[in-house]
Amino acid sequence: MCHANTLIMLESSLYPHVSVDCVVFGFTGERLHILLISRNGTSEDGCYSDMKLPGSVIYENEDLDDAAYRVLHELTGIKNIYLQQFHSFGSPSRTQNPRDKVWLENSIHMKIGRIVTVGYVALIKIGQKLQAFSDRYEAHWCDIDDIGTLAFDHNIVVEKALAYVRLKLIEDPIGLYELLPKRFTEAELRNLHEVIYGEKVDIRNFHKKFSSLPYIVSLEEKQQNVAHRAARYYRFDKIIYNQIYR
Amino acid sequence: MCHANTLIMLESSLYPHVSVDCVVFGFTGERLHILLISRNGTSEDGCYSDMKLPGSVIYENEDLDDAAYRVLHELTGIKNIYLQQFHSFGSPSRTQNPRDKVWLENSIHMKIGRIVTVGYVALIKIGQKLQAFSDRYEAHWCDIDDIGTLAFDHNIVVEKALAYVRLKLIEDPIGLYELLPKRFTEAELRNLHEVIYGEKVDIRNFHKKFSSLPYIVSLEEKQQNVAHRAARYYRFDKIIYNQIYR
DNA sequence: ATGTCTTATTGTAGATTATACACCATCGCA
DNA sequence: TGCGATGGTGTATAATCTACAATAAGACAT
């Protein structure tokens, strides 16, 4: 076999690998959450446990978008959501942390020099059952303000995703409604605006705009068992929305 | 050597290659232009000559941004501009056109299965001397409405770049001023708006906003040798702009 | 010199949208 | 029954957007 293995090693570190990473945002009605995979391993400094974005290398004959949907499904069980590509990350140093290098070699079974990753973002109603496919890949919803230091450059990826969402919602606010459950209160939507844009909005001015939107329809139901006046529920009407804006 | 070459071939088509492509927009005062490289080659159906975006595969240890600057400089001589990443393209079919496959093998000297490319966009004052580095890589400014069918999926890349520019200019119009020469008339800026957004703007309403911008300063000079009343020149004052918006 | 052609330059009125701001209602619970 | 917490609502002012047309300046042809 004459060094065939050595050759393969050389090759696989010479050419960049391409991966996709998914930043999936969810919303509880109060706080913004993000879907992370817990990662356990050992490195020079002993055992560790930390978090990473759901992501993986793409297949040989797979489109980037397809890879993102596949990976998200494989790692979390999530299907039927819109993923949007927002940025690619290719710094040679992004896979140079020793902990990350060891983890990559163990999980991809290959020596890897660098990985260019393509970032995808989704807004999703929180609370879908998350399917855990193995003990190593366990998906969790984490409060965005409490994610600590993630694997690779994933903190940067998350920041960039948030910036993209803010910009993108200017041209089409429909993404916001993906972040809410079927029925929601006005305050929940107001909270969502505040966590995404990072600033308080005026309650009465918000109400004025909210109540003028024809595609927000009011339901009969109200909150129950709350220690204050119960708020009315609303729903987002996609049909009316599409009639107006598509 | 026992099939070592075969192995290399397998490897290089197994792992995706990563390239960058640059969409560089320029503006004459009337029409939007884009920087393209002419490509000559032969394929099954004889000689051909067509155009492609300036782009190339990245080096082993090169950041994506660095690669974009390097490639643009190598192919066109352009330096010192802002390039912004806007989207990545990775469809397996994007490198399957026979003409493109042959061209790739000749220019990269390697059999390549697929290339994931990262798109960069820049707005640049037109008219900088373009440096031609070889007979095969000759850079030209082409009218955006007259670029025909480009190599690979580059027509799609250009479309996406334009959409990105439109969106991006909402949050920061400074990019627009990169597209204009040092001194420009109000009509030139108005034309630029019209070609970028693809619709007529009201002359007087535009003037009202234009003349209220503190960072647009009027010069004494006027147009010369025009067959009508000469228009006044203005310039963009970066210092005033930064004082207000940074 | 005069007229014609082409583009430059400028304002106003009305509609729409954004902002600032405070009080009463309702419900659970002690 | 009263307190604590959140829900729900209007008005006045400022700022911005929209629609719209007549005169000015220079080049050129006669």
Outline:
With 246 residues, chain A is an alpha+beta fold. Chain A is 36% helix and 27% strand. The relative contact order of chain A is 0.16.
CATH fold assignment of the largest domain in chain A: Nucleoside Triphosphate Pyrophosphohydrolase
**Total domain units of chain A:** 2
Please give the count of helices of chain A: 8
Poorly predicted spans of chain A: 1-11
Query: How many beta-strand runs of chain A?
Result: 9
Order of helices and strands of chain A: HEEEEHEHEEHHHHEEH
Structural class of chain A: alpha+beta
Average residue-wise pLDDT of chain A: 88
Largest interface: A-B, 34 and 34 residues
Q: So what's the oligomer here?
A: homodimer
List keywords for this structure.
homodimer; 246 residues; alpha+beta; Nucleoside Triphosphate Pyrophosphohydrolase; Arc Repressor Mutant, subunit A; 2 domains; seven-stranded mixed beta sheet; two-stranded antiparallel sheet; 9 strands; 27% strand; DNA-binding
Structure description:
The structure is a homodimer of 246-residue chains. With 246 residues, chain A is α+β, with helices and mostly antiparallel strands. Chain A folds into two domains: 4-171, Nucleoside Triphosphate Pyrophosphohydrolase (Alpha-Beta Complex); 183-245, Winged helix-like DNA-binding domain superfamily/Winged helix DNA-binding domain (Arc Repressor Mutant, subunit A), CATH 1.10.10.10. Chain A has helices at residues 4-14, 64-76, 98-108, 154-171, 174-178, 186-197, 203-212, 238-245, and strands at 17-27, 32-43, 46-52, 55-57, 84-89, 115-123, 138-143, 216-222, 232-236. In chain A, the strands form two sheets. In chain A, strands 1, 2, 3, 4, 5, 6 and 7 form a seven-stranded mixed beta sheet that branches. A two-stranded antiparallel sheet of chain A has the order 8-9. In chain A, strand 2 (32-43) and strand 3 (46-52) form a beta hairpin. Residues 1-11 of chain A have low confidence and may be disordered. The A-B interface holds A 1-4, 7-8, 11-12, 14-18, 58, 60-64, 85, 87-92, 113-114, 116, 118, 167-168, 170-171 and B 1-4, 7-8, 11-12, 14-18, 58, 60-64, 85, 87-92, 113-114, 116, 118, 167-168, 170-171. Chain A binds a DNA duplex (30 and 30 nucleotides) through residues 185-187, 202-205, 207-209, 211, 223, 225-232.
